Amino acid sequence: MDRRRLGSRRPPHRKESLDLDDIVYGVHAVEEALAGKEELKRIHVGDERKRDPALRKLLDGAREAAVPVRFENRSFFAQFPYRAHQSVVAFGTPFDYVTLEETLNLKAPGGRLYVVLDHITDPHNAGAILRSAECAGATAAIMPERRAAGVNATVRKSAAGATAHVPIARVANVAGALRTMKKAGVWIAGSALSEDAQDYAAADFRRDVAIVIGAEGTGISQVVRKECDYLVRIPHYGRIESLNASVAAGILLFEARRQRAEG
After folding, report:
1. Which of 52, 89, 128, 204 has its C-alpha lying 20 to 30 A from 69's C-alpha?
2. Domain with CATH 3.30.1330.30 in the chain
3. Residue 92 CB-density burial (10 A; 0-12 exposed, 13-18 middle, 19+ buried)
4. Which residues contact 16 (CB under 8 A, 6 or more apart)?
């Protein structure tokens, strides 16, 4: 009997250590990982969802991709720290980042559009930014290797599958990456609240451009700010000092898309 076939139960074995960074959880996130042809080792589904019509697409995708599916009782899912797993957890491989050079070689009709995460530490914000980037048709996303959220299980969940579709590069130094991008003909627009920033609706996003989103609370760093060709701000009409980083990213990315659509 082939134990790898869809729906087979795993035989008793030693408990393996969990690498939470390589886990994808939640129905939609796993579906998109399959659609994006991410390498998944296996998928675990709650026994109570064996005949759930909402999982038909996921199970069909797993069968087509030859990814084993194992049905588990509730105690299996208790080992994970996620509340929103929906009784669906997939074990993947370390996320396949691309290089900065590879992102600069990508072709984009209408101009290249990048989003740069300047030390975004909240994985929910990072995931939401990546989701907006994918929905806006961004060419790629750039994030730092240290002191920032990488692509882990929470980021994948918050991105709602976007990590399976948008190329993501990790760089050792954001300012250095921006200098490389400028040499490749990419303009750098930094999101800021300062007086020297122009209204985002008046800024030019039609050319090859990278939109830099700063860390929660502190904004873009001074060293990164110096590499920006221009700064843009989103006007505020209420009393709160600033927008959430992921909301700001979505507004700017879709402004760029709007301008390009109008020509």
Report:
1. 128
2. 20-92
3. buried
4. none
Is 136 a residue whose pLDDT tops 60? yes
What is the overall mean pLDDT for the chain?
Answer: 87
Q: Which residues contact 20 (CB under 8 A, 6 or more apart)?
A: 80, 81, 152, 153
Q: What is the CATH number of domain 100-262?
A: 3.40.1280.10
**How confident is the model at residue 9, as a pLDDT?**
43
Residue 15 has what DSSP assignment? P
- Decide which of 110 and 133 is more confident: 133
Q: Which CATH superfamily is domain 20-92 in?
A: Ribosomal protein L30/S12 (3.30.1330.30)
Where in the sequence of the chain do the CATH 3.40.1280.10 domains occur? 100-262
Angstrom distance (rounded) from CA 54 to CA 231: 45
> Tokens standing for 42?
């296996």
pLDDT of 12 reads 43
